[in-house]
Design a protein that fits this description.
The chain is α/β, with parallel strands linked by helices. It is 34% helix and 12% strand. The protein has an 8-stranded mixed β-sheet with strand order 1-4-3-2-5-6-8-7, with helices on both faces. Helix 1 runs parallel beside helix 2, helix 6 crosses helix 8 and helix 8 runs antiparallel to helix 9. The radius of gyration is 20 Å and the shape is globular. The two termini are 34 Å apart.
Length: 330
């Protein structure tokens, strides 16, 4: 259903965005590239912090697809504002009141049931997938929106390089290998970013269900990995993928090629409890990789497998007790 946008919501609390500040900045930058007459589509808008950035730069329609139901995740971010399951669209509209909300078109419901025909033939210049975490849902959305994307339209997928959502990373790699997506280097990720930008590819075949390890790493290194700077959280994603595939030796080798960065060690420590529950991952392999990541200084002298950029991480030795976790640092 398409919701009316002519209403005021309850008193607005201080907003805590789901995205990192650098990711929000990239959404705004890419919104400038939307062509005249094209529309933006955001899947999973919550209270509209990313929507603000789109509306600031894009003068056309912005379609928001969300269930607009207050969840436990929302309540953890902004406690006690609404009851679980309550409609938060009015709260979002209050947050967007000074950002030309008349240009918004709200679609309440599951994105799986969304029909792109509701776009009335308009091309999509920017497609932002922030809400979906299920790979089947993401694949379905990309497949249905493919015919409606503008030739240079940007597809922004949150968690596309996240070590915490490596199944999404795997889907992106397989879609690139199949020619369904292309890495877009117009706006490269910051060190804390887990969002990556793509363009729709020219192929029309479904991605294979699993790639050989060598092929997977080659696709990652030549597309997504090469866009990451030293110290980027995304560099941990192939380590997690390798461990889940049962290749602890290769994961350790890659860890040994990475420059020391405290945030990577912190993130790795945070993930260990969950990773240790996986049948293919041993605690000893997790510790070995932690030790490899904790080594101070540059150890790899050969050609890098990814683009190297100036590392802004402080290099003052191994992480000290009390180092904030990755989740807290965002």
């Amino acid at each position: 259903a398409v919701l009316s946008v002519n209403f005021r919501g309850p008193m607005l609390p201080r907003i805590s965005a789901m995205m990192a500040a650098s990711e929000l900045s990239r959404v705004q930058s890419l919104s400038r590239t939307i062509g005249a007459g094209d529309v933006a589509v955001e899947v999973g808008c919550w209270l509209g912090e990313a929507t603000k950035r789109i509306l600031t730069e894009h003068a056309g329609e912005v379609h928001l697809i969300d269930t607009f139901e207050w969840s436990r995740l929302h309540d953890a971010r902004v406690p006690g504002v609404l009851e679980l399951g309550a409609d938060f669209s009015a709260l979002m509209m209050e947050n967007l009141a000074s950002y030309h909300p008349e240009r918004l078109v709200l679609h309440k419901g599951d994105v799986v049931a969304f029909e792109p025909s509701l776009l009335r033939g308009q091309r999509v210049g920017l497609l932002l997938l922030d809400g979906p975490k299920d790979t089947d849902v993401i694949a379905s959305v990309l497949d249905r929106f493919r015919p409606h994307m503008a030739p240079t339209g940007a597809v922004l997928v949150n968690h596309a390089i996240s070590p915490f959502f490596v199944e999404i990373v795997d889907l992106m790699v397989r879609m690139i290998e199949a020619g369904l997506l292309r890495a877009d280097e117009r706006d490269l990720p910051g060190q804390k970013d887990t969002m990556f930008v793509f363009q729709i590819g020219t192929a029309d075949a479904a991605p294979v269900s699993q790639l050989p390890v060598e092929t997977w790493l080659k696709v990652w290194d030549s597309s997504m990995g090469r866009a990451l700077s030293d110290g980027s959280i995304g560099l941990l994603a192939p380590l997690v993928w390798l461990l889940k595939q049962g290749h602890a030796d290769l994961a350790k080798q890659r860890a040994e090629q990475m420059l020391y960065a405290p945030r990577l060690v912190s993130a790795w420590v945070e993930m260990q409890d969950d990773l240790a529950k996986h049948d293919a991952i041993s605690l000893s392999s997790l510790i070995e990789i932690e030790l490899a990541l904790s080594q101070y200084g540059q150890r790899h002298q050969g050609p890098r497998l990814w683009r190297s950029a100036p590392d802004t991480t402080a290099r003052d030795g191994p992480p000290r007790p009390g180092l904030r976790s990755w989740a807290e640092s965002r």
